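Tutorial, part two.
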Amino acid sequence: MKSGILICMVMLISVSASIAQQASAQKIEGTPYLDEKYVDGEIFFGESARTKVPVRYNIYQDLIEYQQNGKALVVDPSTKIKKVQMGDITFIVEKLTVGGKAKYGFLNLLDSGKVTLYSRKMMRYQEAIKGRALDGGDVPAKFARMSDEYFYKIGTGELKEVGNLKELIASLPDKQEEIKQYAKQEKISPKKEEELRQLIQYYNSL
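Running the prediction step on this input gives:
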C-alpha cells in the first residue's frame, strides 16, 4: 500500500539527470547533496499517509532522493507532499518566486508558531574551464555551496524573504518594540541562521 501511494501520488524517476551523467565522464569537485549519505527518513502525504524510506536531499536540483526496492528514485516538491523528515531536518513544500517565476520548492523548517521560519539551501554548479588553472591545466567543474536564503510566514499569510531586520520586525503584527530591543541587545544578524532562529523563537514565545 505504501509503495502504491508513492507511485500514485509522486512523480518517480530514476536518478540519472544530466549532471549525474556528466559526473561519470569527468571529474566534478564537491557534491550537489546536503549529505551524500542516505539517512532514515519519512515522506508525509496529506494528514495521515506516510512512507518510511532512506532519503537524501539534492540541493542543486531541489529534489528528495530515496531508495526503494534497490532503486534510487526522487520526489519533486509538490502540493501532494506535506513534509519530508530527514533525520532531525524537516523539509516543507512551499510556493516561492525564483528568477521571477513562481515554483514549488523544499524549504528547511527552522521554527514554527505565530511566525514560521524557513531556510532555502543554495548550490551553484560551475562548468569546467579549459587551461585556466595556475599551472596551465584545466579547472574542473564543481559544485559549491552558497549562503542559505531565509523566508518567513506570519500565520497562514504570504511567504516572504528575509531582507533586513528592520523590515522583518516592521512586518510583525505586534510586539515590534520589544523585538527591536531584543534584536539590538542580542546583536541579531539576519544572515546567521542560529541568530535569526533565536529571534523568531523569542517572538513565538511571547
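Confidence is low (pLDDT under 50) at residues 1-25. In part three we will examine how such features are distributed along the chain.
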